[in-house]
TrEMBL record:
Pfam family for this entry, one: RVT_1
Matches recorded under InterPro entries: DNA/RNA_pol_sf, RT_dom
Record-annotated membrane-spanning stretches: none
Name this polypeptide is given: Reverse transcriptase domain-containing protein
Top-level taxon in the UniProt lineage: Eukaryota
Domain Reverse transcriptase, first and last residues per copy: 167-441
CDD domains, alphabetized: RT_nLTR_like
PROSITE patterns xrefs: RT_POL
Length: 527
């Protein structure tokens, strides 16, 4: 969801027959993090994304507006403390890591000795300036000054920052001052009980200069990996030109082609528990070494991973520092790349069983097609999942079988497969639908459930926007519609190509309704 921050300027009298009541006369609506999205031709030329603040004049009544600004009161506030969160987040990861034995330093990944990356190249002041000015100006509580101010005075501090970065790269040492994170607990859903620790997820913030140093390393390390084809080509996460949409397109197209060839298919969506937080450093460094990374480059990465800590900020208090012995740093620049490297050898385990796969970060989709009367399907799935589970165990990752989803796409709509997969004490049964990277997939690949879910959320957003439409300018309405409606219509909509017109008609109706709201037309007027 995209947040809408609304600030009221109240206390001004207005009187137009409404009892001379004191009502707010203007509203400043600030929309942040608007995506760069394609929109319908009807709205595209009217939507302005460069101006993110619009002042609108209130009309004749504030009753509807107030009802939106004053939602039902939240549940009673909890008595949780910052230290409670710090201990909970630490123990959650430690509980998973303690299940595993001493790691094996050998990994299945093999490469040639021709690939070598032993040191980082120093950066010029121009390079550092580009890194500073091109970064998003997010500020961490650990930063000495706000990031936007640092960027404003960057010309004065670039020489010093360049010296710090190059000294770190040359010595193979990541500064200790950059190893601490500040974590803020975030309630996963507003409807959840705020008194329960498990209902919160940690949001980690790192110092801006630390992330700038990471970007310098990321650029050089990723270039080496890409040039030598060392990254998994079936990993769409954290890659330029790749997205959740490309990952889903790759899989759904393969399933559709199999169905066109009168074959059934199985799609398995693996679920990992706290995958980024349980990465074993010893195994990761061993994998990096086998990829040809050595010398001060490997030494720097070892320093980057070790002796990290975090503190939790909660309601004005800060917890005691907690040490991190596993995982890649959350909220970091290098963390996603290192995790992709860590997962590289999983692909060979999957392919050994004749399965195809595609990953997006820690979300793994594996699939294969078969003749409808093939009696070996259950055995093949069981064998593949068993080997995957063993690989996960060797790499200190926990495969959550209770949340792992199984979809069976039949060769034709009238055919049904009835089987279940037993793995240890867990039983995996086929589902009719499953949420995959934010898209609701169904076993017939009709996407009717996804369309229904999308239209339902869009209708709710349009309903709320229409209630306050009399108080909004056209431009403000355009921004709201883009953020809350069109963004949902656009998400992974390439998956819907080729569907019958009757299937996607609800989406067109939503777009028509959005246009009517923007142009303030009556509900039933055709457009």
């Amino acid at each position: 969801m995209y947040s809408v921050n609304i600030a009221l300027n109240s206390g001004l009298q207005r009187g137009n027959g409404l009892n001379q009541e004191t009502l707010p006369t203007s509203v400043c609506i600030s929309l942040s993090s608007l995506p760069s999205l394609q929109t319908s031709s009807l709205l595209k030329h009217h939507i302005t994304t460069t101006r993110l603040t619009t002042v609108v004049t209130l009309g004749h009544s504030s009753k509807t507006f107030s009802s939106l600004l004053n939602p039902p009161p939240p549940p009673p506030q909890s008595t949780l403390t910052a230290d409670d969160f710090a201990v909970f987040f630490t123990n959650k990861t430690r509980t998973i890591s303690d299940q595993f034995s001493t790691p094996q330093t050998e990994d299945n990944f093999t490469t040639t000795n021709a690939h070598s990356f032993s040191s980082f190249s120093p950066l010029s002041e121009t390079d550092v300036s580009k890194l500073i000015l091109s970064s998003h100006p997010t500020t961490c509580p650990l930063d000495p000054i706000p990031t936007h101010l640092l960027q404003a005075i960057s010309s004065s501090v670039i020489p010093s920052l360049t010296h710090i970065i190059n000294s770190s790269l040359h010595s193979g040492t990541f500064p200790s001052a950059f190893k601490q994170a500040r974590v803020s607990p975030l309630l996963k859903k507003p409807s959840l009980n705020p008194a329960l620790l498990e209902n919160y997820r940690p949001v980690s913030l790192l110092p801006f200069i630390a992330k700038t140093l990471e970007r310098a390393v990321f650029n050089q390390l990723s270039m080496f990996l890409v040039q030598n084809n060392l990254l998994d080509s079936n990993q769409s996460g954290f890659k330029s030109g790749h997205s959740t949409e490309t990952a889903l397109l790759s899989v759904t197209e393969a399933l559709r082609l199999a169905r066109a060839a009168s074959k059934s298919s199985v799609l398995i969506l693996l679920d990992l528990s706290a995958a980024f937080d349980t990465v074993n450093h010893q195994i990761l460094l061993s994998t990096l070494r086998k990829m040809g990374i050595s010398g001060t480059a490997l030494q720097w990465l070892n320093s980057y991973l070790s002796d990290r800590s975090f503190m939790v900020s909660w309601r004005g208090e800060v917890s005691k520092s907690q040490q991190l012995s596993t995982g890649v740093p959350q909220g970091s620049v290098l963390g996603p790349l290192l995790f992709s490297i860590y997962m590289t050898s999983l692909g060979s385990v999957i392919q050994k069983h004749g399965f195809s796969y595609h990953c997006y970060a820690d979300d793994t989709q594996l699939y294969f097609s078969f003749q409808p009367d093939d009696p070996t399907v259950v055995a093949r799935i069981s064998a593949c999942l068993s080997d995957i589970s063993s690989w996960m165990n060797d790499h200190h990752l926990q495969l959550n079988l209770t949340k792992t989803e199984l979809l069976v796409v039949p060769a034709n709509p009238s055919f049904h497969h009835n089987f279940s997969i037993q793995l240890g004490s867990s039983t995996i049964t086929p589902s009719r639908t499953a949420r995959n990277l934010g898209v609701v997939m169904d076993h017939q690949l009709s996407f009717t459930d996804h369309i229904a879910t999308t239209t339902r959320s869009c209708r709710f957003a349009l309903y709320n926007i229409r209630k306050i439409r009399p108080f909004l300018s056209e431009q403000a309405t355009q921004l709201l519609v883009q953020a809350l409606v069109l963004s949902r219509l656009d998400y992974c909509n390439a998956l819907l190509a080729g569907l019958p017109a009757c299937t996607i008609k609800p989406l067109q109706l939503i777009q028509n309704a959005a246009a009517r709201v923007v142009f303030n037309e009556p509900k039933k007027q055709l457009m």
